[in-house]
Amino acid sequence: MAACAIPRTTPRFRDQRVRRHRHPSINVRLSVSSHLQLLEGEAIYVLREVAAQFERPVLLFSGGKDSVVIAWLARKAFAPARNPFPLLHIDTGHNFPETLRFRDEFVARMESTLLVRLVQDSIDLGRVREETGPATSRNALQTVTLLHAIKELGFDAAIGGARVMRKRPAPRSACSRIATRSASGIEESAPGALESLQRTKDRGRALPCLSLSNWTELDVWQYLESENIPLPNLYFAHRRPVFERAGMLLAATPYVELLPGEVASERTVRFRTVGDATCTAAFESGAATPADIVRELAVARSPSAPGASTISARTRRWKTANGKATFERPPSAVGRNGPAPVHHCRQRR
Length: 349
Known about the structure:
CATH topology of the largest domain: Rossmann fold
Strand order of the largest sheet: 3-2-1-4-9
Number of domains: 2
């Protein structure tokens, strides 16, 4: 019986084949559209696997760009059927009104189920204690509300939008064991691969699944531009009253108390995130479209440029001296390229 001859692959075809199948985090020359298609395909695969292997998954939704992208991907992953994941929003009570309006409009457009839990309810029930003073925030308190909501509603998987900050590291696992509350606080177990979802499921626990774990902020904005996905207008240049604190701009809202010497003035600004209004910083920018923001990010010098998203780059601790509230600036907070994007909202210890 004659042996079957196997045609030899030419070097050119072999190189094309490697480039076509390599992971997007590897430094190869791919067009933007091909690069986004690879990221989109990976995220859709994660979402479909979560839907197949879990009984009650939920999508954590804040109304920000990352959760909007995940909800959009979920619709594409299961089209023409509806998104099988309910959207869970933890409302701190200090959210921007624009974010809440967009949340309701977007959920109605996606024909999804929206579940809302309030941090205020956790305060009223004594689960958390709200701090007082001009520099307090409810941002850290929403973790407790989230954990109780997951337990109350019986979810076994939580889909979130955590991703890389700027540079693309080695590919990260899409899923990891959830933080569970014990007598000593919140505990986290070691990450697990997507293929071991079934093995890592435990009764009474939920698994956080990160479908954007290999995306950067630039990837997200390029995808938003290519898909023409709607977003809250906070992300784009607009006029609003702001005041300066610790070298950053905070929105003048009823939730933030102005200190002596602080004066609000109207400026053209935008936000990089739409979280709690008490600690979300704006920066002056003229970027009015996703394309403008893509260009803005492409020329940024450091991970904190064009502006840190929260007002903690220069304020790690709040202290009182001589009866007056003052900021304390740690020496390590400011580097050669400006302040590093450290989170401002104080964590309870």
